[in-house]
Write the C-alpha cells for this entry.
Amino acid sequence: MNHNPLARKHNAPFRFRAILRSFVFLAFCLLCAACRSLPFAAQPTLPPEPSPTATSTATHTPTATSVPTSTPTPSPTATSTATPTATHTPSPTDIPLTPTPTLIPLSTDARMRLFEQLWAHVQQNYVYRDFRGLDWDAVYTEYLPKVEQAVSMDEFYGLLAEMINKLGDEHSRYESPQDVIEERARFDGGLNYVGIGAIVRNVTEGGMITRIAHGGPADQAGLQVRDIIVRVDGIPFTDTAHFGPRGPISVIRGNAGTGVRLTVRSPDAPERDVLVIRHVIPPDAFPSVESQRLPGTDIGYLLIDTFSLNGLDDRVAETINDLTAAGPLDGLIIDVRNNGGGQLNLMLNTIGLFADGGSIGHSEGPRRRYDLIVPNGRANSMLNGVPIVVLTGPDTVSAGEIFASGLNQLGRAQIVGQPSAGNTENLLAQDFEDGSRVWLAELVFYQADGSIIEGTGVQPDRVVTGDWWRFDIPDDPQVLAAIEVLHGSTVTQH
C-alpha cells in the first residue's frame, strides 16, 4: 500500500483522524462549491433496487427496465397440468442492446480520496442536519476499513452505495460510473434492455401484467393485461426464498433469444403455460405519456408516469394537441398514480401547460433555496376553462406529488384517489472525477402556503381506495369518481 497522507491517517489515533478528516472535508467543500446541478424532486431515473418488502402492492416494474421488490410469502399453489400454448419467436430486429460500460480500476489512493470526498459532501450538504438520528461519524469509522479492503471495483462502488443507503431517506443514492452512463442514456430515451415487454405489479396471487409492449415478446405470446403470472419456470412467483432479493423479474429477464416458461392465469380462465422468447425491448416500448378520450364522453385521460425523461414536457404538449384535435374537452383527468418523480424544471414546464404562471412554493435546505415558479406563455388555449382532476396514490412520489400539489394550490385541479407517498426531498447531483455521482437529498419542498407534505403526502379532495390497476381505464373506480368530480366542477385559476 502506498503510504500517502490519507493512508497514514487511517491508522492514526481517533483525535488526529477527526482533525484530518475535517481538513479534507473543508478542502473538498472549496473544491466542489461550484459543481452543482439543478435539483431533482425524486429519483431522476427508475428507482434503485429497494429493500425487501412483503407488501403485495409495493411495485410497478417494467420487466425490461428495472428490478422489483421481493414478493409476499408464498401460499400453497396447485401444480398446473395445462398444455403449453404455442408461441412465436419474435421477428429479427436491428435494435441493439445498450452495452454495459467497463469499470476503470482506481488506485488505492484514488479510492480513499473518493471515499473521503463522498463522506464530506454528505456531512456538509445533507438536508437533515441531525442525519435522521444516524451517527455519520460512526458510519465513516465503519466503512473506512471496508473500503480499504475492497478487492474489486464492484465491491468498492457497492460499499459507497451501501454507505449512502444508510441515510434511509428513500431518495439519496450513489451511482457508479456505469450507473451514471446508463442513467444518462435512460434520460435521453436511448436505453434498451432484454425482457418480455411487460410491466408487472406484485399482487397477492402473483405478478399482474398491467402494460404490454405492442408487438413485443409478451404480446406475441398472447399474454394480456391483467393476466396473473403465478409461476416462473415452474417456481411460484411469490417464492421469495427461491428468487432472492432481486425477485422473479430478474429471472424473467435474461439473454435475447432465450425462453422463459410462465404459468399464467387470465380472468375467469384456468392456468396455462406460455413460453415467451426474450428479446431486446426498445426504450419507447412503454410510452411515458399516453392519452385517450373516455368512451361516450368528451373527457380526456392523460397519463404522465415520470418527469425524468428529456423533453417530457414537450411530449405532454404534443399529446394534449392530439387529444384536443377531435374537438373541445369537457374535462381532463391527469393520472400520476405511478409517477416516480424527476426534474423540477420539466415538472414546472408541464404545469405551465395547464396554468399560465404562478408560484407553487419553494424548495429549501441548509445552504440554498429555489423558488418554484411556473412559466408564462405555455398554457394550451384549448384547455382554458376546462376542469381538471389529478389522480394520485401511494406510488405518486416527489415531483409527481409536487405536480399534483402545484395544480391544486393554483386552484387549477382537484385531486382524487389516495394520499401520495409523502417523499418530497429534492436531490442535487455531485459528480466525482472518476465519473461516479451522488444524488443527495439537500432540499425539502414547501407548498405555496408554507406547509410541507413530507411524511404525509398530497391529500385528495375525494378519497377513493381500491386496487385500481385491476380495471380497464373506463371502469377504473378512481377514474369514475374523477368524472363525477368533473361534472360538479367550477374552474378557478390563479
Observations:
- Confidence is low (pLDDT under 50) at residues 1-38, 42-99.
- Residues 16 and 264 are 62 Å apart (CA to CA).
- The first helix runs from residue 5 to 9.
- The chain is about 25% helix and 20% strand.
